[in-house]
Amino acid sequence: MPARHLLTTDDLTLDAIHSIIERASQFLTPTGLGETSLDTLASKRFVLAFFEPSTRTRLSFESAVQRTGASCVHFTEAGSSVEKGESLQETIRTIESMGFDGIIMRHAENGTHAQIASHTSMSVINAGEGTQSHPTQALLDASTIHERFGSIGGRRVVIVGDLLHSRVARSTASLLSRLGAEVAWCAPSSLAPVDASTMTRRIDSVESAMKWADVVFVLRIQRERIISDVVPDVDEYRRLYSVTKELACSFPDVCIMHPGPVNVGVELDEAVLDMPQCLVHRQVTHGVAIRMSVLEHYCRSTTP
Ligand code: CP
What we know:
Blueprint: H1 14-25, E1 45-50, H2 56-67, E2 71-75, H3 88-97, E3 102-107, H4 112-117, E4 123-129, H5 135-149, E5 156-160, H6 167-178, E6 182-186, E7 201-202, H7 206-212, E8 215-218, H8 223-226, H9 234-241, H10 245-250, E9 255-257, H11 280-299
Helix pairs in contact: 1-5, 1-11, 2-11, 5-6, 5-11
The protein binds phosphoric acid mono(formamide)ester (CP).
Phosphoric acid mono(formamide)ester binds next to helix 2.
């Protein structure tokens, strides 16, 4: 019986990770998603509780719920009794009392998911936690790389940009490293990762990264940081850390990934998004497939 909660990818054994990626591949076609209309999660009920904005994760979980025969409702903080002062703990107990099987939650505060998991009978599925973890993003990134290259072991991946604040960087670097990839990082010192233990080297510019890597994985940089002390010179940042059209054209075999949303013209040129080596939109498609597979792994009600 698998663990009930997905808090970090460390909750998953290597066998479970391979199994989730393999199952997700069954939902994908070369250009999109298959006509999935399953009943593997029939009668399961989920709450989507996003305390931070999201497009990809929220919609792909909702789509995954529908495609596996389950149902879901949305909890939104605005208009809820949280606005009347109800605590998060009591909100979760209230949701649990309505008979839901799982809560798919994004929250800005590190540790919130684990705290809730220790007090609820529902499965807690982490859809993004503060600066700490985003396990289904890591799984979809691994799934996308696996599809493109046929394997992950031995692949060279450079994570570029704001590693300091990025939950994606933490989760994806950790998972890819466990799966045998060599992961490097490339960022100004002001955005260096707090913990680089899953990464083997630092690379000083995105151009050097393109020379070394199979995959350059670019992170979102928040616009408000660009005009702060952290990144005071946008032109200098672009020169060293942005994947321009010219750079992408010079290295057509290097895949470009980004978790989204992209700050077009900052991390990537708009033209890069349409290049064959750019996997950004394929990552989004994998997001639906991986979340179907994750929900089945944690909450399956029938044999597939
Ligand atoms: N990658 C990601 O988590 O995107 P959203 O914030 O749109 O969900």
